[in-house]
Specification:
The complex is a heterodimer of chains A (about 290) and B (about 240). Chain A is mainly alpha-helical and about 290 residues long. Chain A has 11 helices and 4 strands. In chain A, the strands form 2 sheets. A two-stranded antiparallel sheet of chain A has the order 1-4. Chain A has a two-stranded antiparallel sheet with strand order 2-3. The termini of chain A are far apart. Chain B has 10 helices and 10 strands. In chain B, the strands form 2 sheets. A 6-stranded mixed β-sheet of chain B has the order 6-7-8-3-9-10, sandwiched between helices. In chain B, strands 2-1-4-5 form a 4-stranded antiparallel β-sheet, with helices on one face. Classes of the chains: A mainly alpha (about 290), B alpha/beta (about 240). Chains A and B meet through helix 6 and helix 7 of A and helix 2 and helix 3 of B.
Chain lengths: ~290, ~240
């Protein structure tokens, strides 16, 4: 019983962390029809930045600063690597995204000199707390709460604010949005800012479970979150969240069995199955090319 | 009000417009007629800054607007109702109307009531998603959306496209009504008959050139126009 509770708890919290990354994938796809392959690495950089910050300022200042730095990074990546390719074929932008991904990984390898970096113990988040007769970290316990609060806020923003309305309009039709006076590039920047901010929050919650991180630490969680976004129907925010929880919980369950090494195999098999059976995912819209 | 001089536009080597000059006088309904591919849409799209012109001048109320960003041009008081309506299908009718006022930050209540007065049908469907409206209703919505920016010049690209004759008549009545309320109109139409009937001034565009101009009734009576655009032969 304790075992099951502990597995479910880590599953839900892992799912929440993936959800925070998956939203970035799905929102950027919704607007630009671009799989932002650099997103997982932005997530990793958020962790690295926090490590360097904590070395000089207290954690309660470091965390907001790391989030701001990640937002800036997301913004700069979009302006430098994607904006100039706005009217280029989609494939070119995707290749640019892959390039940014490797750039970030290698840049971090250079900065860290290839050494694994010790992720700091953040007071409170890293502390353990007894729940259901087992012990867990506060980070795991509060992740679902933070995720729910952020998702509610995001949904309100998308559905009930002017910028949210503009985001929905731009995701459907660039040119007509322009005719409304909407500055497309500003809306796209906001999308990247939101995605990066959520990834930064996710990174604090996720890496707290780990003692060290390396420049490739963002790749796997990034891929898993990407699978979650595809599973839920890429372009759909609720889809990404549901997909992330499904994958987080399944992964956690498999890790609790003797097939632990197959947890990623399961995730990616799921990707193949969903692409074969229902390519639009759980909540995805039919993909129609813009005319 | 709007003055275009020697406007030339090319798409990758192919000239879509050659030295087009035309003028829109404040308070009028001006129409631009011509066959498919004559460059009508290109003219409107370059006025509003969606297409970059190579040469020429576009002046609006004495101010050069060529090369300005689209949102700046809209701030100057020009709006385009695009071809094929292009309402946002996943936004509600009310949201579509509100997004037309994207650049404004003042209170919209009066203007929303104003467009609902012009298009009562939209008021009934205010919470419906725009994608579920009929073609005629979507066209009404596209016009309502455009009016929300308080345009001085409202440009319409083929508002009758794909609509039933009765609906077209409604749309043209609305165009006249809006014009009476003081909005200048630049209208592109394939339905030359309808367009010339309501137009104060008309231009004929053929393969990128303005070939004729005059008042609406002059062109309506012109033999060449009758033959080429109104489907009436000389002998009858």
């Amino acid at each position: 019983m304790e075992f099951i509770a502990s597995i479910l708890m880590s599953g839900i919290s892992l799912g929440g962390q993936y959800a925070l990354i998956a939203i970035g994938y799905t929102m950027v796809y919704g607007i630009l029809r671009l799989i932002n392959f650099a997103h997982g690495d932005v997530f990793m950089v958020a962790g690295m930045v926090l490590i360097y910050m904590v070395a000089s300022v207290p954690w309660y200042i470091s965390i907001p600063l790391a989030i701001i730095a990640t937002i800036l990074l997301g913004f700069v990546i979009e302006r430098a690597a994607y904006l100039p390719l706005r009217s280029a074929p989609r494939m070119s932008v995707m290749i640019s995204a892959i390039g940014v991904s490797y750039l970030l990984q290698n840049l971090m390898t250079y900065i860290t000199a290839g050494q694994p970096m010790y992720y700091p113990d953040i007071p409170f988040l890293s502390d353990t707390v007894p729940v259901f007769g087992t012990e867990t970290q506060w980070a795991k316990l509060i992740t679902p709460v933070i995720v729910i609060v952020l998702i509610v806020a995001l949904t309100q923003l998308i559905n009930h604010t002017k910028i949210g309305m503009a985001m929905r309009a731009v995701s459907k039709d660039f040119e007509t949005s322009r005719l409304m006076g909407i500055k497309i590039n500003k809306v796209i920047s906001v999308t990247f800012i939101i995605g990066s901010a959520l990834a930064a929050v996710g990174s604090v919650l996720y890496f707290t479970n780990f003692s060290v991180i390396v420049p490739t630490s963002g790749a796997l969680p990034g891929l898993r979150a990407f699978v979650a976004a595809v599973f839920g129907g890429i372009g759909s925010v609720p889809g990404a969240v549901v997909g992330a929880f499904v994958i987080g919980i399944c992964e956690s369950i498999i890790r609790g069995t003797s097939f632990a090494t197959f947890s990623d195999a399961f995730t990616f098999a799921l990707l193949i199955i969903i692409l074969v059976v229902k390519p639009t995912g759980l909540f995805g819209e039919k993909i129609t090319d813009k005319v | 009000m709007l003055k275009i001089e020697n406007l030339s536009v090319s798409y990758g080597g192919i000239k879509a417009l050659r030295n087009v000059s035309l003028e829109v006088t404040e308070g009028e309904i001006v129409t631009l007629i011509g066959a498919n591919g004559a460059g009508k849409s290109t003219t409107l799209r370059s006025i509003v800054g969606l297409v970059k012109a190579h040469e020429g001048h576009i002046e609006f109320n004495g101010k050069n607007i060529l090369g300005l960003q689209t949102n700046k041009i809209i701030e100057e008081g020009i709006t385009l109702v695009p071809e094929g309506r292009r309402v946002f299908p996943d936004l509600t009718v009310l949201e579509n109307i509100k997004i037309g006022a994207y650049l404004r930050s003042d209170d919209l209540t009066d203007d929303i009531n104003w467009v609902y007065d012009i298009f009562p049908r939209l008021k009934e469907r205010s919470w419906q998603l725009a994608g579920t409206l009929s073609g005629g209703e979507q066209q009404m919505l596209a016009v309502a959306r455009a009016l929300m920016s308080h345009p001085k010049l409202l440009m319409m690209d083929e508002p009758s496209l794909g609509l039933a004759p009765l609906v077209i008549r409604d749309i043209f009545n609305v165009i006249r009504e809006i014009n009476k309320q003081g909005v200048t109109i630049l209208l592109i139409e394939q339905n030359a008959n309808m367009a010339l009937k309501i137009a104060d001034t008309a231009y004929v565009l053929e393969t990128g050139n303005i070939t004729m101009s005059g008042t609406g009734s002059e062109l309506l009576a012109d033999e060449r126009i009758k033959e080429a655009y109104l489907g009436k032969s000389k002998n009858k």
